[in-house]
Amino acid sequence: MAVSLYAYVAKKQYEKKHLENIADQVDPAQVTETNNKLKFFAYLKDKPLAYESQDMPVTGIQFWLHLNQQYLPYLFTLVALFILTLLLTEPYHQQLDLTRLNPISKWRQALTEISAGLILLGGSFLVINLLMIIAATIFAGAGNLAFPYLTYKFVNGRMMTNFVACDNLILPIVVLQFLGLLFLVVLVRFLAKIFRAQLPTLLLALLLVLGVNVAVIAVPMLRKVSAWLPVTYLNAVDTVSGKLGMLYQNPQLNFRAGIIVLAGSIVIILVLTVIVEYTYQNSKA
């Protein structure tokens, strides 16, 4: 009896040590990825929906989301800054504002400039997205609005993942993208009012938008304040899905914060633009 008890205890100690060794070798990221895959397939089974790769989707709607998550937020922003710089610095000749010769009010001129920039960017962005969706739909089908999309959310300090239908994300994404485009327009217009020349306006715009985004990724300390930086929210898909909050470990990074920060930044920049115009006009008086 004593021998069998000793053998039993030895066996349990061996099992415990074996489990501890396994636990040391298990990668938490792999566990999370496996759990997410299980949730993904469970979602497809409940609907049911045809399987499509999450990493490389090909159907219209899913491809649109993937494009707006991985590429367009940065590539289109780069192109947008060039376009806006050319458009909004065009009225200046040797740092003289030729729009002052127009017989219209400053407010109407400001509205015209902002509307022109927004229409140009919005139209270009819309055309690019439509072309991509149409091309993907022709070759692989339209996709499904009920298809699952992985979302992240902090609950009591812990990151929780869940799959929701794509149609729950589309409207918030479009709203955040619109505010992001408007932010770019008013920012470049503000810089154009200060420098009144193309090169310094473009360089500072690139530094403030893309440079700050790179800095947030590279410098961990900046991630703590990333929720208060308007350029953080230019990636609308990752903001709405909560992926940015997960990557930066910042629970304040979400859709609601994006609306508040972008809208507030737009108002602040517009006020600063008025101050710059007023100061410049008085200095020339």
Description:
The chain has 285 residues and is mostly helical. It is 71% helix and 7% strand. It has helices at 2-25, 28-46, 60-70, 72-89, 106-140, 167-195, 198-218, 220-223, 236-241, 243-248, 255-284; strands at residues 92-93, 96-97, 148-155, 158-165. The strands form two sheets. Strands 1-2 form a two-stranded antiparallel sheet. A two-stranded antiparallel ribbon has the order 3-4. The termini are far apart.
Compile the SSE list and pairings.
Blueprint: H1 2-25, H2 28-46, H3 60-70, H4 72-89, E1 92-93, E2 96-97, H5 106-140, E3 148-155, E4 158-165, H6 167-195, H7 198-218, H8 220-223, H9 236-241, H10 243-248, H11 255-284
Antiparallel strand pairs: 1-2, 3-4
Give a quick rundown of the structure.
It is built from 11 helices and 4 strands, in the order H-H-H-H-E-E-H-E-E-H-H-H-H-H-H. The protein has helices at residues 2-25, 28-46, 60-70, 72-89, 106-140, 167-195, 198-218, 220-223, 236-241, 243-248, 255-284, and strands at 92-93, 96-97, 148-155, 158-165. The strands form 2 sheets. A two-stranded antiparallel ribbon has the order 1-2.
Radius of gyration: 26 Å
- Number of DSSP E strands: 4
End-to-end Cα distance, whole Å, is: 106 Å
What is the H-and-E element order?
HHHHEEHEEHHHHHH
Looking across the biggest beta sheet, what order are the strands in? 1-2
Shape: elongated
Low-confidence stretches: none
Mean pLDDT: 86
Sheet of most strands = 2 strands, antiparallel
Structural descriptors:
single chain, 285 residues, mainly alpha, two-stranded antiparallel sheet, two-stranded antiparallel ribbon, 7% strand, elongated
